[in-house]
Recover the amino acids of this structure.
């Protein structure tokens, strides 16, 4: 039975224990019984499902913050070059992007258990406060270090807003209807994610990059007010002493592993040779720290942020890996497509506008997936067809995106990548939740967001390493024997604006070097998408129940 709640129960009758999920349900819906987590609802407090209008009000209050957080996750896609140029360090781009995503990865797994203890509303308001503070710091930053610190604070708040909003949806919406509601949520997230580059470029050209962060602060305050008045979810665990069981050590180890990996990949072939002790020691330390993290999660943490035993479930492991690899591919494309167009002479606004089709695709992909799953109760076939179309679009980007090519094909390809990405996000999240018991929903949702955040971070880092190393190699191969080559190549790699003031005769060679570097990034992202598609093939079909009680 659901615990009493201030929320009004839905007037829609629930299916009984004996009524079928689908009238045409057949035996080929696999339950994965041998690895399924045991069902035990005795210790879980379930909120009652509210009426549609009340639910819309609650979720809209959450989704407004999700839109702003998504906007910030991609805003440096077009602001990265101006910010890096402002601080005279183009290699700063990956740190500006990754610091936000690493903070996401750090806090997202903790947010489930913390909000179980202190409440969803308190957690969501606190995350809005962090998000506000981070934007303020970024807007006022005078040094790269302060800028990165501000991005970390933003990431803590933004990651919490996204994950806690998803927990609230899990608390209130049955799985069978969840796909459609998650699709609406992804519509907000997709619009924010897709429009981040457009918004950042437009504000940069109009007022300067700092205002892109500062203008968000009043909107974030409104988000916090909406949550305060509209979100009232029963606290699941009222014993505050349970905070001792929160896996802070695991979160620290995960972040340490990511930072060490980022340090090694960013330095290798860029500031120091790949054989340099800094690179080797950073990567080795990252692997060792990751191994310690796995040990802590399996043997030490009383309530791990990523319970290793859940990963023994085939669907859970496959969905997490799919999310991980596809997020790598998505963010590699997302951050380097605008830079490609800026190198080809477009303003930040026009370069950001090239991401609009991806924004629309990202917005409607979740809705399509949610509606499809609500109608059919199934997701595997939709997942595989979406992954195949995504891979084809990435290959076409790698083959056709060159100077002088028609401008309209990339719009189609980016639309497909955006659509298929959110289809993947909705399906993997629903598959994860369906594969585990209700009491594991928050932690498995956190694991899903952690995979997205770590995948995004590693994807940008890999794309940056590939881009910088290929660009450096091509520039030295072409201009290494020219007078003053070292200084000029350094300036080209530190500022995209340097292409406007190159020495006579350098432009064609520099442009060719950039194109080769970009194409290497596109093919790398396509390779990551292949790994994601292979991972998704191992997912199994689970029932999407029609009630919160999973009857």
């Amino acid at each position: 039975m659901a615990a009493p709640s201030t929320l009004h129960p839905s007037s829609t009758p629930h299916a009984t224990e004996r009524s079928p999920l689908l009238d045409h349900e057949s035996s080929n819906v696999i339950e994965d019984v041998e690895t399924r987590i045991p069902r035990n609802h005795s210790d879980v407090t379930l909120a009652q499902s509210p009426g549609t209008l009340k639910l819309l009000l609650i979720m809209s209050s959450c989704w407004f913050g999700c839109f702003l957080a998504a906007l910030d996750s991609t805003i440096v896609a077009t602001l990265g070059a101006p910010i890096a140029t402002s601080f005279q360090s183009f290699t700063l781009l990956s740190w500006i992007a990754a610091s936000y995503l690493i903070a996401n990865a750090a806090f997202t797994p903790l947010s489930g258990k913390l909000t179980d203890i202190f409440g969803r509303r308190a957690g969501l308001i606190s995350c809005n406060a962090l998000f506000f503070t981070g934007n303020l710091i970024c807007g006022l930053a005078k040094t790269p270090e302060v800028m990165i610190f501000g991005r970390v604070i933003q990431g803590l708040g933004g990651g919490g807003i996204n994950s806690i909003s998803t927990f609230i949806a899990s608390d209130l919406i049955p799985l069978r209807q969840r796909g459609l509601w998650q699709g609406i949520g992804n519509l907000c997230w997709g619009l924010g994610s897709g429009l981040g580059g457009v918004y950042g470029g437009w504000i940069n050209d109009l007022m300067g990059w700092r205002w892109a962060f500062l203008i968000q602060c009043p909107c974030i305050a409104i988000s916090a007010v909406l949550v305060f008045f509209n979100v009232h979810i029963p606290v699941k665990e009222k014993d505050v002493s349970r905070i001792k069981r929160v896996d802070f050590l695991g979160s620290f180890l995960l972040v340490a592993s990511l930072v060490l990996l980022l340090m090694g990949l960013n330095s290798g072939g860029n500031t120091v040779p790949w054989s340099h002790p800094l690179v080797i020691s950073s990567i080795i330390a990252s692997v060792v720290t990751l191994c310690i993290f796995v040990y802590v999660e399996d043997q030490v943490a009383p309530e791990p942020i990523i319970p290793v035993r859940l990963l023994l479930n085939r669907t859970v492991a496959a969905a997490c890996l799919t999310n991980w690899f596809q997020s790598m591919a998505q963010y590699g494309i997302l951050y380097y497509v605008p830079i490609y167009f800026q190198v080809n002479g477009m303003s930040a606004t026009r370069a950001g506008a090239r991401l609009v089709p991806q924004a629309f695709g990202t917005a409607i992909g979740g809705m399509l997936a949610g509606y499809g799953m609500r109608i059919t109760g199934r997701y595997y076939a939709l997942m595989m067809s979406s992954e195949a179309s995504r891979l084809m679009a990435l290959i076409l980007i790698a083959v056709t995106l060159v100077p002088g090519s028609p401008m309209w094909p990339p719009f189609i390809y980016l639309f497909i990548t955006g659509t298929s990405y959110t289809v993947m996000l909705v399906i993997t999240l629903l598959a994860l939740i369906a594969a585990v018991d209700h009491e594991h929903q928050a932690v498995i949702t956190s694991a899903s967001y952690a995979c997205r955040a770590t995948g995004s971070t590693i994807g940008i880092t890999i794309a940056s390493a590939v881009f910088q190393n290929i660009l450096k190699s091509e520039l030295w191969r072409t201009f290494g024997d020219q007078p003053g080559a070292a200084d000029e190549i350094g300036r080209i790699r530190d500022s995209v604006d340097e292409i406007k003031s190159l020495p006579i005769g350098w432009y064609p060679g520099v442009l060719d070097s950039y194109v080769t570097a970009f194409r290497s990034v596109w093919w790398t992202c396509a390779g990551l998408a292949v790994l994601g598609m292979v991972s998704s093939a191992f997912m199994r079909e689970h029932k999407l129940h029609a009630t919160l009680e999973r009857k």
The longest helix spans residues 441-479. Confidence is low (pLDDT under 50) at residues 1-44. The chain has two domains: 48-235+303-536, 247-302.
